[in-house]
Design goal:
- The complex is a heterodimer.
- By secondary structure, chain A is mainly α.
- Chain A has a domain at about 30-250.
- Chain A contains 16 helices and 2 strands.
- Chain A has helices at about 5-25, 30-55, 60-75, 80-85, 95, 105-125, 130-150, 150-155, 170-190, 190-200, 205-210, 215-240, 250-260, 265-285, 305-320, 330-340; strands at about 290, 295-300.
- In chain A, a hairpin with a 4-residue loop joins strand 1 (about 290) and strand 2.
- In chain A, helix 2 packs antiparallel against helix 12, helix 2 (about 30-55) crosses helix 13 (about 250-260) and helix 3 (about 60-75) runs parallel beside helix 7 (about 130-150).
- Chain A is globular.
- Chain B has a single domain, classed as ABC transporter involved in vitamin B12 uptake, BtuC, CATH 1.10.3470.
- Chain B has a two-stranded antiparallel ribbon.
- Chain B starts with 5 loop residues before the first helix and ends in a 14-residue tail after the last helix.
- The chains are: A mainly alpha, B mainly alpha.
Chain lengths: ~350, ~300
């Protein structure tokens, strides 16, 4: 990295912090919430991209991982009073009823437990390949959801949890998002990251180069699960209520949409597309409401947004398979070239 | 453990067999498509859902069942072909992950279109007395449907096996499932054969959907998701790519599910997890399923 790039990175970080400071103080709650969601979806997209994009393991278990993180964080941060109010059918199991942790340790524990779950799921499931792996991880996510629906004394079952303290703010979500981005960049460019990509390109070739397939797959899966759990925890404490129905396959679909649009295997693409998709989801809300064209009123239909998003996903996969960024990444060189409209040097440095 | 009389056991068994037959009908569609394209057709469960809506509206507009059912089957088969042409045909040579994502996209598109067009609220499926009336044998009271479903399944299975093993179309399907390129060189129209496969699979899903609607008379746009996943699991258990395997898997799943609830009522909440646990167990013990062939990997 050049000296110039350090300065540029530092300046943009300061600008970002300034923006968060401005947004935190001046923007209305709705905007802040959308920004929070953008950051959380960035974390979730990156964690899924690590598993699906960089290691080439097509896993559809993300909603399950998120639910573990969300529930652990929520249960640990709920106040004693809120727990009594929530668990009116059956009281909460004994040691949990009086436990109230601060946000950060609860979030960390949520992530760690999700990583553990990821490890326990990954160890058997990662012996499978391709669409078998996809369906098995989807199955595990469903099993987690069914378990959470039935453990009345721990998760409050189908009723879900309400009144989760709203600890998630812009500083937490963007801070953790930046931490995730940096971790991913470091990880991808380490020897582990190169092993992940080798496995993605060709398992047999990777194995014959001496890469321990199983170890690296489980590692990627566990790290992905950790960040998914953190993302889930942030989401739970942002929304204030969670229930098992929230963590259906639709949630995994949203994250899949983000990584496909951004480019499977690109950190930059995921970050951009997390923001675009999240903002678009809010901006396209008008599709669900009735539209008044002056002379004719089109009645609103709930679900129109999801139709648009499914068509979008299919169009991208069918005609523009590499998504926004393909497997390319952001670099200051390219960025400055684009800004200054300078043509990149041809082969051999010719202009 | 509760004590179970013979009558009760028979009642549960017949229920299990009829549920298993339904699973088998839908599982055949998965296994045929997987056999020919090596693809999980995620939209299959939603095609099944659409069949119930076609029947619903057919009967709503005053059609008699013997008119509505064939029309439903034809429409559903066409829908299956349409999904294949629009979502999968362009991606024949694409990486597997793209095809899988396209399949998921197609599934979501059908679900959400159904929500937009039909509304998200559940609708009551029409009852047709010929099928849904209850008969009493000894102390057991059973819907006629419970007997009709397995019979229909067996008839359809036998005709399908005949089609695949004895006719030219069936031979073309078997050839395409072995190797697209070679089949094309032998003068087989690969795209048309794949379309026919989707059509037949979807038609079977339509039959399954009609009978599912009669048995569980409440339909809504997301009703295809769970049966779809379970039937895929049934296909995997039986050995994906094998039609008789799909039927065996369907029965194992259907009977197992009903018996689990009957024997251990406290686990009723975990009913939907049962299929997935079975799937994971079978994938770890014998990934090719009961009837599946071992595939060795070429380098």
């Amino acid at each position: 990295m050049k000296k110039r790039d350090y300065y540029l990175t530092a300046i943009s970080l300061i600008l970002l912090i300034g923006f968060i400071f401005y947004a935190d103080n001046n923007m209305d709650a709705y905007m802040v919430r959308i920004l929070n969601l953008c950051a959380i979806y960035t974390i979730l997209g990156l964690s899924m991209n690590l598993i699906n994009g960089f290691t080439g393991l097509f896993s559809l278990g993300h909603a399950g991982f998120m639910s573990v993180g969300a529930y652990v964080t929520a249960i640990l941060t709920l106040s004693v009073n809120a727990k009594v109010q929530n668990f009116f059918l059956k009281p909460i199991a004994a040691p949990l009823s009086n436990v109230v942790w601060p946000f950060f340790p609860a979030l960390l524990l949520g992530g760690a437990l999700t990583a553990l779950v990821g490890f326990l799921i990954g160890a058997p499931a990662l012996r499978l390949k391709g669409d078998y792996l996809a369906i098995a991880t989807l199955g595990f996510a469903e099993i987690i959801r069914v378990i959470f629906t039935n453990t009345q004394t721990i998760t409050n079952g189908a009723l879900g949890l309400k009144g989760i303290p709203a600890y998630t703010n812009l500083w937490w979500s963007f801070g953790i998002a930046i931490f995730t981005i940096v971790t991913m960049i470091l990880l991808i460019n380490s020897s582990y990251g190169r092993a992940f990509k080798a496995i993605r390109e060709d398992e047999i070739a990777a194995e014959s180069m001496g890469i321990d397939l199983f170890k690296h797959k489980v590692l990627s899966f566990t790290i992905g699960a950790f960040f998914a759990g953190i993302g889930g925890g942030l989401l739970g404490n942002l929304l204030g209520t969670i229930d098992p129905l929230m963590f259906r396959f639709t949630l995994t679909f949203n994250i899949l949409l983000i990584i496909v649009l951004g480019g499977i295997g690109s950190i930059t693409g995921t970050v951009i597309s997390a923001f675009v998709v999240t903002i678009a989801q809010e901006a396209l809300r008008f599709l669900d409401q009735s539209i008044n064209l002056g002379f004719v009123v089109i009645p609103g239909v709930a679900g129109m947004r999801m139709v648009v998003f499914s068509i979008l996903l299919m169009l991208v996969v069918l005609f523009y398979r590499h998504g926004l960024m393909g497997t390319n990444e952001f670099s200051w060189d390219k960025f400055l070239n684009v800004i200054s409209m300078k043509k990149p040097l041809l082969k051999g440095g010719r202009k | 453990m509760i004590k179970m009389t013979l009558d009760m056991f028979l009642q549960h068994l017949t229920n299990g067999i009829s549920l298993g037959s339904l699973y088998a009908l839908i599982a055949i569609g998965y296994t045929m498509v997987y056999g020919i394209l090596r693809l999980i057709n995620f939209a299959h469960g939603d095609i099944f859902m659409m069949a119930t809506y076609f029947t619903f509206f057919g009967v709503l507009f005053g059609g008699k069942w013997y008119v509505v059912f064939p029309i439903t089957i034809i429409l559903t088969a066409l829908l299956g072909m349409l999904v294949e042409i629009s979502a999968y045909r362009n991606l024949r040579d694409a990486p597997k992950i793209s095809i899988l994502i396209s399949a998921i996209g197609a599934s979501f598109l059908i679900e959400n279109l159904a929500i937009v067009i039909f509304g998200g609220r559940p609708k009551a499926f029409p009852t047709i007395p010929l099928f849904t009336s209850v008969v009493h044998i000894r102390n057991i009271s059973i819907q006629r449907l419970t007997f009709i479903i397995p019979v229909v399944t067996v008839i359809l299975l036998l005709s399908l096996l005949y089609l695949i093993n004895k006719t030219k179309t069936g031979m073309a399907m078997r050839a395409v499932s072995k190797d697209h390129e070679t089949a094309r060189l032998m003068g087989i129209n690969v795209d048309r054969t794949i379309s026919i496969t989707f059509g037949i699979g979807s038609a079977l899903a339509a039959v399954g959907g009609i009978m599912w609607g009669l048995k569980f008379p409440q339909i809504q746009p997301l009703m295809g998701v769970m049966p779809g996943l379970k039937c895929f699991i049934a296909a995997v258990i039986g050995g994906i790519g094998s039609i008789s395997g799909a039927v065996i898997g369907g029965f194992i799943l259907g009977i197992g599910e009903i018996m689990l609830i009957a024997l251990l009522p406290s686990l009723t909440g975990y009913r939907d997890a049962f299929a997935f646990i079975l799937l994971i167990a079978i994938l770890l013990l014998k990934p090719t399923g009961i009837m599946g062939e071992k595939i060795s990997e070429k380098v």
